[in-house]
Design brief:
Elements: H1 2-17, H2 21-38, H3 54-61, H4 64-82, H5 89-98
Helix pairs in contact: 1-2, 4-5
């Protein structure tokens, strides 16, 4: 099921980059549904680690897949505010809030 959601999100990325609003909204909804579906709707919350260490920082800045996905999401959000691929100040503000 998670691969279906992943493929659907991938298919919705291109129209979202060109300002298609319904594709962006559907992308967001599928993205939010991904994690509960992945664990079979069995939630097992774990305590957060508030203290940051060099190991966690290094792990975060070398997680290129996550950085790439965030960059695509940021570009999609900019396109939604301006309804085009041309970036605007309003688009950057919307993308910053959405991100």
């Amino acid at each position: 099921m998670t691969s279906v959601i992943g493929l659907a999100c991938l298919a919705l990325t291109i129209p979202s980059l060109f300002g298609v609003r319904w594709a962006y909204v559907l992308f967001l909804l599928l993205g939010l549904a991904y994690f509960p579906v992945r664990v079979g709707f069995r939630f097992d919350p774990q305590p957060c680690e508030i203290v940051t260490s060099a190991r966690y920082v290094l792990s975060s800045i070398t997680n290129y897949g996550h950085i790439g996905r965030f960059a695509v999401f940021f570009a999609m959000s900019v396109a939604q505010a301006g309804h085009s691929l041309r970036p605007t100040a309003r688009g950057f503000a919307f993308a910053a809030i959405a991100g």
